[in-house]
Amino acid sequence: MDATADSRRIERAVIQTLESLERAGVAQLAKPLFTPAAASTDAISAPVGTAPIPAREVIASPSSPPPPVGSHSAAKRSVPEPAPLPLLGEDESLGPDLPVEERTSALQILRQEVAGCTRCQLLADTRTQTVFGVGNVKPRLCFFGEAPGADEDEQGEPFVGRAGQLLTNIIKACRMTREGVYILNVLKCRPPNNRNPEPAEIANCRGYFERQLEILRPEFICCLGSVAAKALLQTEASIGKLRGRFHDYRGARVICTYHPAYLLRNPAAKRDVWEDMKMLMRAMGMEVE
Hints:
about 290 residues; alpha/beta; Uracil-DNA Glycosylase, subunit E
């Protein structure tokens, strides 16, 4: 690609990002909460199989995460109510395939927007911090969960508690790594007492997770639990009816399975989850024993 074509591609990506921010009601970019760390150049080892997953670059964790937003934060009270989040139309596909550097920049802008969100005032008042997402910014596979729990609220990273440890084991059993996939939730704030998200809360966060997926452009999405599956696919079908087959989300192939927290309460369901994972691995071109 010559310099002129490269310049035009970058210009288009910048324009798309600015248009997305304008639709979200962002008139002026604030000073970044932290300086984005450079993406790691170390390739991830491909899993064993006849058709291994290509190595991807991984975004490094920022050295200075955004400060927690307390319930009495003056900055929180001064944030004006933003305009409605832009949503993708049902017939739209995911966004353009951006290079790693542009994905990283776009995700950092969105992360900062999420950190200042007060759309759900109760959640904003009770959270320690928002929980955005973590992992490979150019993934083949995204794991899509429900909402942060107490451990996630404290650490600012999705799936780090007991359910998160089980998810890590599931990923390893599939001969992948947490660093090679991307993990995110429907909600970016912890609901009080770990209750299920309210429909209005899901609606308030929809624009955020849709824009995350638009930037990430995964080939595959694994919905963990009924809340995630219903939110992404906009269906009222039960997780039992959604399992065992692939669904479509704007060009990405979607599989639905039980949430790791459910497996902690119902260990017998692990067999069903493993069958779902084997179906996913076959679709990804991986050898399944």
